Amino acid sequence: MRNPLADIGGARKHERMSTSLLPTTERALLRRLAREQRNGRAPSLIAGLVRDGETIWVGTRGWVDGESPTADTQYRIGSITKTFIAVLVMRLRDEGRLHLSDRVEDHVPGTAVGDRPIWQLLAHNSGLTAEPNTAWWERTPGVGAESLLDTIDKEAMRPHPQHVFHYSNVGFGLLGELVARHHGEDWATVVRREILDPLEMTRTTPHPVAPHARGWAVHPWADLVQEEPTEDAGAMAPAGQLWSTVEDMTRWLRFLGGDTGEVLHPDTVTEMRTPTSVDDGGVWAAGMGLGLQLQRYRGRRLAGHSGSMPGFLANLLTDPDENSGAVFLANATAGPSGALVAELLDILDEHEPRIPQPWQPAPVDPALLELTGLWYWGPTAHVVRILPDGMLDLVPWQGKGRASRFRPNADGTWTGLDGYHRGEQLCVGRAADGTPNHLDLNTFIFTRSPYDPDAPVPGGVESWR
């Protein structure tokens, strides 16, 4: 019987694509990819790596219709679709058209989840069921929006405890309808206009456009395959409909890492990557931000999303701290592991660790120098230094404690970006001659000497003895 996957004659020149890496790194990456494709028995598998805003490696194994897949071959990306819906919701928020604390009822009335805030749908902790009360939505023609909304009744709410992490495909079907109602057009049209076109992601579509892979199920006990259906999911499409390529997905990795173009402010993407709910397993290693899955892996803080639909698996994760990321796409219902992306990042760091940029002097606003040096919170010494980007860094002088970076504001105040003081305001207090003599960090007073008696709080304390 002819192999339904490929006429493999002449199709073996697919070991790797263009790369800017060392040959030893390429070989290690290819070997990891080859092991995953063989052990996971995927008809084809393609992966890509980004670092510092560039795609630095794409590797493939297997065949699509007799040819090696390329960075332009479409695969179904499943639940990675949810990240696009989340971005559209955040755009509505940033435009002032909704608040994340708004009740769902205020925007899509008539469901049992109507009393929950929008952000709980994004973070999968609204208490809503995982799957719709319809036929198996991934393998049957989808229903319309009104039919889906009719199924979101009291039976669709999970028992207590609610407000904890419980993954819900239904929730993103509902968010897709929210987006459609705000724009007066279907969600896919809005995704194209507001995200894909501005980012030049021309090969991400709601339906396959050649060249594309077919989806396969692999027999569990024999090396046989069976083609999987690719139905239009209807109102559930926002949960997993899109098709894309490695080339487009590496652009999406850069977006999720902060290279957002004009689609979102980078601060909004940072907000989306901030933990909102935790997947309460044996180890707190995973959770959700606002539409993004989060992982803690060997000290890394990763954000992105996995995806699966009949015949397809995908995963992409960005490491914003390292300005890197990885993605894989496969046309198999099961087999390849989502851990592949993190392990590709490990190989990159092991074989080509970053070499620090040489230190060199940088221009600094002279007025900021008077803020640097030692400050005391009570008896505890802290240090303020100026970062290369003009922000202030407040850290304990010795040992652990509350550390934060601060961004300048136009009115002379500073806003905390991370740590305990995230979002809090720092004001500089000055003596009569204009010299900074204390820092007021949301009522916490830092002074140049421990318990300065001239400080506003506590002030007037007795001298040391």
TrEMBL record:
Domain DUF7586: 364-448
Coiled coil: none
Disordered: annotated span: 1-21
Stored InterPro entries: AmpC-like, Beta-lactam-related, Beta-lactam/transpept-like, DUF7586
Annotated Beta-lactamase-related domain residues: 31-339
Protein name: CubicO group peptidase (Beta-lactamase class C family)
Organism: Halopolyspora algeriensis
